[in-house]
Design brief:
- With 677 residues, the protein is α/β, with parallel strands linked by helices.
- 46% of the residues lie in helices and 8% in strands.
- The protein has helices at 6-11, 31-40, 52-68, 88-106, 118-129, 141-151, 200-206, 214-222, 231-238, 251-263, 269-277, 285-296, 307-312, 321-324, 328-335, 341-349, 371-388, 391-400, 446-457, 461-464, 472-484, 491-511, 520-530, 544-566, 582-593, 606-620, 641-650, and strands at 17-22, 25-30, 71-77, 133-135, 155-157, 171-173, 183-184, 191-198, 351-353, 409-416, 419-426.
- The strands form three sheets. Strands 4-3-2-5-6 form a five-stranded parallel β-sheet, sandwiched between helices. A three-stranded antiparallel β-sheet has the order 1-8-7, with helices on one face. A three-stranded mixed β-sheet has the order 9-10-11.
Amino acid sequence: MGVQGFTSYVEENQQFFNDLKLRNTKIIIDGSSLYFRLYFTSGLDQQHGGDYDSFADLVQQFFEALSACNISPFVVLDGGIDSSDKKFATLKERMQKRIRDANALSRGCNGSVLPLITKQVFKQVLSRLKVPYVQCMSEADLEIACLANQWDCPVLTMDSDFCIFDLKKGYCPLVDFQWNNVSRYTGTAEKYIPARCFSIDKLCSHFGNMSKELVPLFAVIIGNDYINLQAMETFFSQVRFPVGSHPLSSRTHIRIDGLLNWLSQFAGPEEAIEMVVKYISDSQKDEVQQLLSSSMKEYKLSDSNLADYFTDGAPVSNVPKVIGFLPPWMLTALGKGQLASFVIDVLVLERALMHIQVEDFRLPSSNMCSLPIRQVIYGLLLNGKINLLPKEITDDWHKVSKHRCNIFKVEEFDRYNLDLKRTVIQAILPSSPEQCLLQKIPEVPLPVRLQIFLETLGVKRSIVHSVPHHLSLPVCVTCYWLTHSNPKPTLQYLQALVLGMVYGELCRLAKNGDSAASCPEVKAVQEQLCRLRVWRNDRQGLNVGAAHLYSQWQASLQITNILNRLLCCPLPEPDCSWLYSGTFVHRVVRELNSGVYPESLLCGSILPGQLYRDLMGAAHSAVAPDFFSSKKKQRNKKPDKQQQREAEKRRVSETPKAQPCHDINNRFSVLELEDED
């Protein structure tokens, strides 16, 4: 939700807070607030599509700090859009703002856009660290507040709505949560995290011991993400608020302070509402009174629906009606965040809000590249929905058309140039829809599920077997990207993308302590590649053509991961933190365009060179032999000696030729993922 202007207001009033030394406690974490806060306040890349490896390290450091202080985190993530559509206008406004911000970043100006795969990386790190988390079926605020009160522990978030909930232990704003400043009690080994905690009791005490029941009414009148009554402007224009005792920095803060002072004169919300509607026109009195009363219920706390999920593994309850008819395997996958909230929106609202990336805004949205995959997902979900819902609900659908696929449509909201546009998308059913009913998917043989996956992407089965198994999905995505992106990628863009995957593999092996990564030759190549980054304040500016192509690849990766999960993983889910580093890939594009050979960046060790050739070979096998040829002069022709000398100066050094330090008869032996528990 979010109360307009209230976060900055309470930050200016330190008397509403208690200082804490947080340790030895449970804490309920608003997952969405956390990954946004970590990414945006750490100087990580936004312009080049994200640096997911660095973000994954940051998330791990955060939870290691909690562990050092014996703080037990429970992360709660938002799910689908509110099915009542009360917040939809606000969501569209935020999308339009992201379009403006992404366009500004593409032109080298300021803006804030969360890279596309950030949430997926966040969830994967939580799984790897065994941090308990849940994905709600709708917005998570109320569930978080109820769980915190049931467990008598604080909430960690950046949402001003948690100033409105009557929380027993209060809420800790992320901005004051000094997780990177873990301290130790003098003379002991016990550690704590310095923090501040907002107290609703202190707020009410400041305003003459105002009743806590009036605080939700304040939020509804001042306006939140759900309620923004135009009639309230009439109220604000006529009522005369008491003057506060503290200087305030903005008109919004003056209004907040005045309203709280005004409400403090009433014993409870009923009396206050009666006074409010006196300032409203007669034609609107009843409507406003009813809306104020009903909207306050959004802040009423009860027993948590999540406590049993975390303690006993019980399915997530309190789900929208449509979700309640899903088979158990899907309910479990949604609760665990294995199936994205995108699936909830399609099933409940038959709607999808597309993510906005930094790209070339003169071209169609990068999401157009993955449209054919989304159409199949829509077909799988809506065909499954019509077969799961009771007959009395679906009879009208059957009457519309004899061909079910003709009635399966989803409305998408995406950018068109610099504006937000609604488009109705026709769903597509796979070739064997009877085998893909949602309740039957886990029972479908693996070869059949894999065939549906490969047919959707238009990829040959042989490609899957030509690369390390854990990289088969991103390689399939790359093959799809080559044939569906617009404009068509040149060879250098493919080479840079594949080099990014090789670099990610070397980093993954090193982080996992694999023996191959400890070989001096492999380590030298990894360190050499690590220096290839586009650093902040780079003077050459963004290659917007590269940004647009790689945004299409990321959009395809994200939606393919959803398809893979919906088909119960015919291919292993990749660790997304190692697949793409925007600053690395963009720098490599620059190097290749200047005449550097991709193989020269890997020389000195057999392992990375072999992996690069295997990945490139798989990609080449998906397109025609002349795919990268052009009637125009090739940009990657053999460089002359002067070009070679200049390119070589940019590299730190050539590493010596190495002997293999793994079984060369099994070229993928060191690249396999560790067995999952």
